[in-house]
Amino acid sequence: MSAGQRKLSKWAMHAILIVLSIVTLVPYGWLLIASLKNQDDFFSAIFLPPGDGVFGIGWDKLTLDNYQNLFGLGFGVNLVNSIFYSATTALAATLICAATGYVLAKHQFRGRNLITVVVLGALIVPPTLLLAPGYELLYDLGLLDTAWGLLLPLLAPAFGVFLFRQAVIQSVPDELLEAARIDGASEWSIFFIVVFPLVRPMIGAFMLITFLGMWNNFISPQIVLQTADKQPLSVAISQLRGVYKTDYGLLTAATVVSVLPVAALFLLLQKQFISGLTSGAVKG
Amino acid sequence: MQRLSNTILALRGLSSGVWVIATLLIVSAFFVLMRDPQEKGDLRFWLFSLEHRKMYIPLIERHEQTTNIKLDVELMSIPAIQSRMMSGFFGGLPTADLIEIERAVAPQVFMGPTEAIGLHDLTDLLIEEGLLEQLNQPSLAPWSVDGRVFGLPHDVHPVMLAYRADITEAAGIDVTQAQTWDEYFELLRPLMADTDGDGKPDHTPLSFWYTNQDMIETLMLQGDGQLFTQGGTPTIDSERNAWLLAKMTTWCVGSDPVAIYVDEWSAAGHRDKVDGLAIGYIAPDWMCSIWKMHVPGLDGKLKLMPLPAFEQGGRRTSVRGGTMLGIPKTTEQFDRAWEYAKLLYTSPEVARELYREVDIISPVRSLWDDPVYDEPDPFYMNQRKGRMYIELAPEIPLRPSSPYNKQAAIDVRDAMGQLAKFAEENRLYTIDELLPRARELLAGVQRQTERRMARNAFAAEDLAAAEHGGEE
Lengths: 284, 472
Prior knowledge:
The complex is a heterodimer of chains A (284) and B (472). With 284 residues, chain A is mainly α.
């Protein structure tokens, strides 16, 4: 292939990617524009409302009213709640899963295999099946309508424990642990100083997955949290939908508010996320 | 100290994203922990409708001031109410003091024996306080088991036919002359001509399709089809049901079907409505407000009329959807909850708002004289539609409260799909030709439902009793 052909092929590739990017971004663009429209324009204009402005668009019809109304309804409280629940779950679950995964991978003790099988078995239980007994348990523990009631059941997901067990088996050589023990390091130090840095790619990936999972979690907070000022964004957004009618401007503004923080976080963590997902992919 | 510094050293290698999450946690925790906890009320009320909450709040606030009994109104989605309520009922845990329950969820509450239902039996109270006779009687059926009432009805939801009066009147057709569905389709046949040459009829008389379970159930009810008796015995394979299924299938098949699929909820469906793809639409009262909000292009183009009947002199309405208010047995303050229930469900103020905001008429007959129902509605060509719906309200068909009704209705829809396929494959387009196959299909649904019920010890007992002549 000549240099000219290579250049042409590169341009063609880029053109296709640009088209695909536009296709991907159109729904987000639509969402953003919809959040800036009033109710009449929402139904009459697919994208920007027509008017006398540049390109025949009614730029003056775009408004931030939906955002003002949204925060006027106390949406800021739900936003803070979502951040709190997601960040707590992401950090605590990562730490607990990494520690449990390390113990299951590298420590010999009676019942280790049984615990591993139980963890694997827990993966096949559908979470919805646990809603009713979980509700009863939380009631018995007096944890209904508390942040603990929401967070505790999510702090040691079986998926995370198994993921870190595999990551430790693959990335942490036994010789390194033995060397650390000979040097007099405690188990605590070994975990934080030796193991933790070696499973770093998995930490980023798992933290992001957990953060997003909690951010989008709808059913658990709906069931556990009953007071309005404790509910996260996902629940608050669902309550903007009426049974008979819906203020779509408000709903799209709320969706934008809920999408932006996680999009920003993904940009920050994307390198680790991808390397975490692909770690071990090329190992023999 | 050395251990701590080593740990910090190890954590330094973590990415900026992790630190961002940690910072977010610290900042948000500060706000969450510093916030004053919300003051708890004396009673709790779970409901699923934003609109209902808006209507109730002013009344509740006034009642709180006079009685000093605070009611916490907690809005949540229907699945959340369902999960919390059923978990509470099964586990014997406290739920709320008042719960608004939607028609699709309510039958689950009635799954076990009557005495084990998690809601208070309100029948005696309704009789004592003279409320029972004030309520539209058929509206009690979905919330009743063995003649006992377990919920106050929120609505009636009678059904009319909304039609594109702008198109029919321009064509000189008086649709209101149609007394039956056959007459309706015959009257509108001229509008099915293909004047624009696109190979399709310009308009089709009815928006209805064999994939829409709600519409099938609504029209079957109109035609006196019943999937269950009021006692809960399945009657899916009745001759009447088979006839109705065959009749409605003939509307959707053949070279010039009189029914067409117009999506009820999507933007594409709304576009089709504005374009006049179908002339007639099945319209429960609540649908009137939905069109105002979602299809403003129909403003001033629709009129309402009673549904054409299946036969001369037949029923001219049906029913679709519904909500009830129940008081769980776990409440410790039944009297207070009952006072609130009556306030919210029988107040003229709420009834008026309910109609003005969402076009729903109240089931309380003594409120039907309110002038609000006589207000002309410009969206519907100034028809006094509230009064029209009220006139039909006592005629709505009875609906069963069987927990198996929902799945049976889905199975009947599937049977109708198979019948339509059978009709097209064999080019059989008349009721008589389709009736034998309709009977077979419904018999299959009946067997399936009975098998499902046999798994439930309580329903199986009822089924056996009915088979031995215990129930007519």
